Amino acid sequence: MKRRDFLGGSMALTALSACSKQSDLEESQKLLLGYDNFAVRAMGWKAKELIDHAVKLKVDTVFITDLDAFEKLEESHLAEVKSYAEEKGILIYLGTWSICPSSVSFKDKWGTADELLQLGLRSAKTLGSPVLRVVLGKGEDRNTPGGIEARIDDTVEVLKRNKDLAMELGVKVAIENHAGDLHSLELKRLIEKAGPEFVGANLDAGNAVWTLETPLENLENLAPYVLTTSLRDSQIWESKKGVTVQWTAMGEGMVDWKAYFLRFAELCPNAPVQIETISGFNRELKINEDSYWKAWPAGKPSSLDAFLKWAKGGEEKGPHKSDSKEAEQVYQLGEIERSIAYCKSIGLGRTS
Fold first, then answer.
1. C-beta separation of 177 from 200 below 8 A
2. Rounded distance between C-alpha atoms, residue 278 and residue 113, angstroms
3. Is 317 in contact with 286 (CB distance < 8 Å)?
4. Range of the domain at 101
């Protein structure tokens, strides 16, 4: 993949300096490599099937980010799943969804936000997961009463009420920058308010693009707090109303992953690289319209200039559409398989 001058300024120099030291990741300690089960959501697989697919992909971890992937949440069943994963040599990372009670995304299927967080923490402990991934919500929360700052405060309150349980269990809460809800600087502020001794970040490079930041700038901002990841590539280009984004398989977009992972290995050597492909659809960020900025009352993010510079190098990409469930399953399996193969080709992963 061609090196792209997509960052500008000091960040580009940082990436180039890292690349000058090593040609690829094979010369350094390899990062753990795995996949996020949302990448194969069309399969409807349960936990053991997800573990089996991790074995097929020859990866180190599986990130099960939905409690519905377990047939039961009783401790005995989760312990059985943990044993199954251990036999296969796979590490489990666990996640669930919104713990912000005022988010448009919050659902009470598992009870209150506190009850969901408590259930997730206990489940993570039983499964041997060092973290529990959660989210605040999605981009629409930026336009709710009080804006994203009010949603951050509500999330922090839930986290603080459950700090003692998290500390007792030894499980950290990894909050994802999710679906346009939080810019990396906003997520950093949330983590620092809640308490970085038990709260960190699930780094999502694809979602970073939806908040007008390059993946490497997102990494630089959140690096001290990164506990785990959900990564995919992106293609972006200038369009009539602003910038359009399409997520892609790893190595098929614009991100210079060699530079990214050299920096990642330096800053977050203990965090796994977990791939979450969500490919094939276009989303236009209508930054040329005044109405877009109502969701950003504090003003345009400082990352915007570097992001727009990056977008100038992009190429328009048509959307993909599967004509059946079976076709979508084949598509999703292909996206994750190519992504894992690409990651291995640049030196990621410990499983041969």
1. no
2. 26
3. no
4. 9-345
Indicate the number of domains in the chain.
Answer: 1
Q: Is 296 exposed, middle or buried (0-12, 13-18, 19+ CB in 10 A)?
A: middle
Q: At what angle do helices 9-21 and 215-222 cross, to 10 degrees?
A: 90
Is the pTM above the cut of 0.90?
yes
Asked if residue 159 lies in contact with residue 194, where contact means CB atoms within 8 angstroms, the answer is: yes
Decide: 189 and 221 in contact? Cβ < 8 Å. no
| Rg, the chain, Cα only | 19
Burial class of 325 by CB neighbour count within 10 A (0 to 12, 13 to 18, 19+): exposed
The answer to whether residue 79 is domain-embedded is yes
Terminal-residue alpha carbon distance, the chain? 23
Which ranges of 214-281 would DSSP assign to H, the alpha helix? 215-222, 257-267
Is 135 part of any domain? yes
pLDDT given for residue 56 in this prediction: 98
Q: How confident is the model at residue 22 (pLDDT cuts 50, 70, 90)?
A: very low
Structure tokens that stand for 208 in this block: 């970073």
Query: How big is the chain, counted in residues?
Result: 352
The tokens of 202 are what?
A: 């699930």
